[in-house]
Amino acid sequence: MADQKDTKKPQKGQINIELDEAVAQGIYSNLAIINHSQSEFVIDYVAIMPGVPKSKVKSRIILTPQHAKRFLKALNENVNRFENAHGEIKDYQQPAIPINFGPTGEA
Questions:
Q1: Percentages of the chain per state (helix, strand, coil), in multiples of 5
Q2: Cβ-count burial 24-47 (b if 16+ within 10 Å, e if not)
Q3: Pairwise CA distance, residues 74 & 85, whole Å
Q4: Backbone phi, then psi, for 77, in 5-degree steps?
Q5: Are 39 and 65 in contact (CB under 8 A)?
């Protein structure tokens, strides 16, 4: 069988998205810190480990208010689909984590 190359070009209105290997590995986070200004939402993802008194922001995502609302809607729809397939996700109470988040500012 001859090699077939994917020669399809994105159709009008489609976006071709690439995912490189480093990004595909993902970044673990068990804490999200959310701040906002009038023009943007900033989500900082942190991994806090037991017994380690200091953590660093692993990733920061900056969204417009419109994209933040769309993200919230999409995440809610996906959580609902997950729970319909696998049962309710338990929301266990976590102890309050005192956070010292360095200097803050507004954009």
A1: 25, 20, 60
A2: eeeeeeeeeeeeeeeeebbbbbbe
A3: 17
A4: -60, -40
A5: yes
Sign of CA dihedral 64, 105, 46, 36: negative
Q: What is the model's pLDDT at position 91?
A: 87
Of residues 60 and 91, more confidently modeled:
60
Taking the whole predicted model, whether its pTM rises above 0.85 is answered as no
**Which one is predicted more confidently, 101 or 16?**
16
The answer to whether the CB of 57 falls within 8 A of the CB of 37 is no
| CA proximity to 30, closest of 63, 62, 8, 55 | 55
Neighbours of 57 (CB within 10 A): 15
Residues 79 and 73: their CA atoms lie apart, in Å, by: 10
pLDDT (tens digit per residue) in 33-86? 999 999 999 999 999 998 998 999 999 999 999 999 999 999 999 999 999 999
